[in-house]
């Protein structure tokens, strides 16, 4: 719940000013087809004095969050959004990975697809070899088409799942023993 609130705040604060206005809040509500109750709840929680703005500091205070940690989270959020926009045909599904590594993996995937065209077998083989070479052994690369369910263990900070075109990539690293 708190993560969803933070993501909403970061999205609404497009100018990265650490302040959102009621107009920006209303625009977000309309863009996301949310009810009027959304505005009322945010005002009640984060702007009970009716100042017309919600500062990041007040937001953190009300949620019991550390301001500097939330600013750091915002930077990560913005980096991930930038990486996603750099590759518009890619839809991120789940990630536990630094944005720089995500961007490198996007580039590796593009190389693998360019070099191997329609052969998923060769794409995953090439990607695994490349990831093992660049980031150490024990990487796993899976391509899925359509609906899937997955449950797996991975080394913290080394899991990335995204859709590119008609392929869904599940890429993760397991820890060495």
Automatic annotation (TrEMBL):
SMART domains xrefs: Dynein_light
Pfam families: Dynein_light (PF01221)
Cellular component GO terms, alphabetical: dynein complex
Domain of life assignment: Eukaryota
InterPro entries xrefs: DLC_sf, Dynein_light_chain_typ-1/2, EF-hand-dom_pair
GO biological process: microtubule-based process
Coiled coil: none
The name this protein goes by in its record: EF-hand domain-containing protein
Organism the protein comes from: Mesocestoides corti (Flatworm)
